[in-house]
Amino acid sequence: MLLTRRIDQRLPDFRPVFEEAADEYELPADLLAALAYQESHWDPLARSPTGVRGMMMLTQRTAQELGIEDRLDPEQSIRGGARYLRQMHERLDADIPEPDRTYLALASYNIGRGHLLDARRLARELDRDPDRWADMREVLPLLTEERYYRDLRFGYARGYQPVYYVQRIRNYRAVIRPVFVGDEVAADGPTPSILSRLLSD
C-alpha cells in the first residue's frame, strides 16, 4: 500500500506548500498533490532519463521560464509546477467547462501545449468536440498514427500517455482528497478495482 504509506509519511512534510501554492495560483491543493504524486511520488530528488527533475518533474527550460533556480528544492518545484499548470489552464478557451478544462490543462502539462493544440485541431477534423475530455481522450492516441500526425504542426506524439496520466491523477486525487477536505465522499473517485491497484502501487 505504497500510496497510503506515503500519504502518512511524506505528504505531511509538503502539505503546507501545496496549500500555499493552491491559494496563490487558485488551484485545488489536492489536485496539486495528486499531480506531484504522479510525477515523482513526492520525491524532491526525482529525475528521469530525459532530464526532468524534482517534485513536479520540470524540464530545465520550463524551470528557467518559471524563474526556478533549483528544481530539487521542493518548495520551488511545487510552486513552479502550480504556476505552470495555471498557465496551461489559462491558455485554454475560457468557455471550456470544468472539469474538462482542468483535464485538458493536465494533458498539456504532460504532452506539451503544441501537441494538445494539434489534437484539438484533429478533433475538429474528425467531428469530435475538442472541449470535451471524453472526446479528447480518444483523439490524443491518434497522434501516434502517421496518417493523422503527418499533417499536424508538431507531428508525432505518444498521445496515449496523457490519457493515462490524467486518469491516474484523477484516481490519486480521490485517495488524497480527504487529507485536504476531510472525509467527504469524492465525487470524482476511482472504481473499486482501480482503487485496489492504486493502493498497492
Describe it for me?
The protein is mainly alpha-helical. Helix content is 62%, strand content 0%. It has eleven helices and no strands. α2 (11-25) runs parallel beside α5 (74-90), α5 (74-90) packs across α6 (100-111) and α6 (100-111) crosses α10 (160-181). The protein is globular, with a radius of gyration of 17 Å.
Topology record:
Elements: H1 2-9, H2 11-25, H3 29-40, H4 60-65, H5 74-90, H6 100-111, H7 113-125, H8 133-139, H9 146-149, H10 160-181, H11 192-199
Helix pairs in contact: 2-3, 2-5, 3-10, 5-6, 6-7, 6-10
Summarize the structure.
The chain is mainly α.
Mean pLDDT value: 91
Reading the helices and strands in chain order gives HHHHHHHHHHH
Model regions low in confidence, pLDDT < 50 over at least 5 residues: 189-201
Sheet of most strands:
none
What proportion of the residues form beta strands (DSSP E)?
Answer: under 5%
| Overall 3D form | globular
Would you count the extended β strands for me?
A: 0
Round the Cα radius of gyration to an integer and report it: 17 Å
Helix percent reads 55-70%
Tell me the distance between the termini.
Answer: 7 Å
Global structural class: mainly alpha
- The number of helical segments is 11
Features:
mainly alpha; globular
